[in-house]
Every structure is written in structure tokens, then in C-alpha cells.
Amino acid sequence: MVLAAGASTRLGEPKQNVRLTLETGAETLLERTVRVAREAGLAPVFAVVAPGYSLPPGTGAQLVINEEPSEGMASSIRVGVAAATAADAEAVVILACDQPFVTAEHMKALAESRDEIGASAYAGRKGVPAYFPARVFEDLLALRGDAGARDLLREAREIPLKRGELDIDTAEDLKRARELYADEPPV
Predict the structure, then answer these.
(1) pLDDT means per 10 residues in the chain (187 residues)?
(2) Cβ–Cβ under 8 Å, residues 111 and 40
(3) In DSSP terms, which residues pair with 131 in a beta bridge?
(4) What pLDDT sits at residue 182?
(5) Domain harbouring 112, CATH code
(6) What's the gap between Cα 147 and its chain centre?
(7) Four-residue CA torsion sign, 176, 121, 146, 107
(8) What residues have CB less than 8 Å from 169, skipping those under 6 apart?
(9) Beta sheet of 62-65, edge-to-edge order
(10) Tell me, what's the pLDDT at 157?
(11) Nearest-angstrom CA–CA distance, 13 and 170
(12) Partners of 58 in the beta sheet?
């Protein structure tokens, strides 16, 4: 599931609509994240968005509307896990749409966690993208606020993610991501 319901207040524009390259027709951060998840063989892919958001046809994600995005990340996780539960998913991989250096290979490595929780490791910590087997869905559904699933990741299996610490929250982050992306785009 791709989390993309945040208000992007520090960036000043919806980050899910940001394009890393300024080329006409370039994909948005959300479109890129969905594509990478699909290339990794993850299915179905749920894009958790705020009311009023839509994806272009052919993106390959099922939209899940978070009616309470102002609560924070936990509300998006809950609606995404509810959609995954309804689809009889054996696990979920939680991704944020604002991490431009996530690759399909990294997603495949996370999915190898099977019955363990798997977390991306970067900047001395564990975070998203992260893999959660169905046995912890109830824990994910109990989350509240903006902390996300941080507590569940403490004992997670670690998979290193190069440049995973770069997420796009501010204009400076976006500028840096565009510079790095131009020099060495991820696969």
C-alpha cells in the first residue's frame, strides 16, 4: 500500500503530484511508487489518498480514500490494511510516495521476510518501506496518530536502502532529490 494522503504543508504542494524530472509526461511521485511496487510483483497495489484525489487511468493501483487524513499516518495505514484484509492479503508492504530512491529490487527483498516484519534500514534507523505479515494486521489496525508503525519495526528484519533517508518534505528536499535523480536515477 502506498501512503499518499498527507497534506504536504511543508512542501507547499501535494507531494504525490510532484515530478522528479521537469519533462513533459514524466511520472509523479505517486505514479512512480505504484510502478515500482508493481514491478516488484506486489499485488494488488493500494494507493491511500485523501478525498478528491484521483490517478490517471492505467496506473495500476486501486484507490483507497482516507476520510480522516488530518489524523496522520495511522489513519492511512488503517484504511490500507482494511482494504488488504478485504482482499485476503497475506501481507502488506507499506510505502510512502515521497521516497524517490526505492527500487523494485528493494521491494522484492522486503517481501522475502515472509512471516517476519521487514524494514528498510537507512540513516541508523528502520523505517518504510516495510513489510508486515497478516499476523500483525490487528496491531496495524490499532494504530493512532502520526507515529505510524515505528514500534512494530523495532525488532524487524533489516534490508538496507541506499538513500532511503531522502524523503521529500520540503522544497530543499525536492531540489536535492532532483539533483541526485538527474545524476544517478534509481532503476
Answers:
(1) 88 82 77 94 95 86 94 94 97 95 96 95 96 97 88 95 92 89 74
(2) yes
(3) 93, 118
(4) 78
(5) 3.90.550.10
(6) 15
(7) positive
(8) 8, 10, 11, 15, 98
(9) 62-65, 46-49, 2-4, 91-96, 125-133, 118-122, 157-160
(10) 96
(11) 10
(12) none
* Residue with the three cell numbers 530543499: 172
Left if phi > 0, otherwise alpha if psi is -120 to 50, otherwise beta: which for 163?
A: left
Q: How many CB atoms lie within 10 A of CB 111?
A: 17
Question: What distance in Å separates the CA atoms of residue 9 and residue 11, rounded to the nearest whole number?
Answer: 5
C-alpha distance from residue 37 to each of 3, 8, 79, 80 (Å): 12, 22, 18, 15
Give the position of cell 497495489: 45
Collapsed DSSP state (helix, strand, coil) of residue 137? helix
Would the pTM count as exceeding 0.85?
yes
Query: How far from the centroid of its chain's Cα atoms is residue 45's Cα?
Result: 11
Q: ∠ CA(141), CA(130), CA(172), 5° rounding?
A: 110
- Omega before residue 129 within 30° of 0, cis: yes
Q: How many domains does the chain have?
A: 1
CA dihedral 123, 4, 34, 55 (to 10 degrees): -160
Whether omega for the bond prior to residue 44 falls within 30 degrees of 0, making it cis, is: yes
For residue 138, the enclosing domain spans 2-183
Helices 104-111 and 29-39 cross at an angle (nearest 10°) of: 50
